[in-house]
Amino acid sequence: MIRSLFSALLLLSWSTLLPAKPRPHYAVPGNEKPVALLHSAKSTYLVTAHSVFRLEGHEFVRKQQFNQLIQCAALADTALWLGTRTGVQNVNTVSFKTHTLRLPGTDAAPSITAVFRDARGAMWVGANGQGVFRWANNVFTQELHTPAINGGVATADSSVWIATSIGLSRKQGTEWTRYNEEGVANHEIPDNIVEKLLPDNAGNLWVIMSDAICVFENGGQRGAAEEELPTVKFIGRPGNEVTGVVAVSGAGRLFATAQGLLLLPNEPAGFASFTPSTDKVEPKRLLRPVTLPTNAGNPMLLEVDKQQRLWLASESGITVLTNAELRHLLAAPVTGKALAGPSARSAN
């Protein structure tokens, strides 16, 4: 299973990707923490801790600024949905006028920890202390009453995933499934405290927990309750925060972490897969630190666009690498000692 997670990328070839023009590094005023990088058909938006920027020519221009802390964001048609510490702000992408959307309940200013759009186009909002709501016909309907909401995403298979402090909830059609440490009905994950959910560009969902990281692979096995999920204790070192992940064709998985960019290379031919029914522990694998230009800072967000360019967002701005530039960067010799990667189902 571990092997299948990283070998799927070998099906793609660098030569099949369309060429893309390089873009300059974009300095972003304010040096604020990036929250979301959002692309529409014609525009690119950067949402930071207190601001909304739009890419205009060769610079990101601030279009709106907020006193309240922005924690999450999503794009829907002609509106940006911002989840803040004090509620939901809706920003028109033409006029950039804002208005507040009020959630049901007694808390007039809830802390919004999830805002996302599902595969059918519906908007979802998670409020810590109140639960999860779906916006339909200009009205919020409560979908989940679990109070401790830490995040949420939707995947292309029409699933909705909610990270909570008592496990992971998933909605398929009209049914909710809960994954937790106790493994009720064999729906098990190694930790109940799910801190964040990171979908990658290969269709996999990475579940970041307080004491482990696991992945629901894209494909038929993702919904199999009896399957043991590929799991590691940490990426890089204990306590290292993971904020983004992308699949790099022919190379491996690239993680944005507090330690910097770390590449987990594709496994070599003949690499033994982990067998859940035994006590076998895989040998350590080496994570490769990736060195970026100084002005790129330490990226917190990673996005791959339709032209296979990699967008990296840090507090110092946005760096965009073409596929060829990324290949060159990953092929560069490692400076310093490579990092020991985590063993499957085992702590380092």
TrEMBL record:
Signal sequence interval, chain numbering: 1-20
SUPFAM superfamilies attached to this UniProt entry: Calcium-dependent phosphotriesterase
Keywords: Signal
Superkingdom, taxonomy of origin: Bacteria
Protein name in UniProt: Histidine kinase
Provenance organism: Hymenobacter negativus
Taxonomic lineage of the native organism: Bacteria, Pseudomonadati, Bacteroidota, Cytophagia, Cytophagales
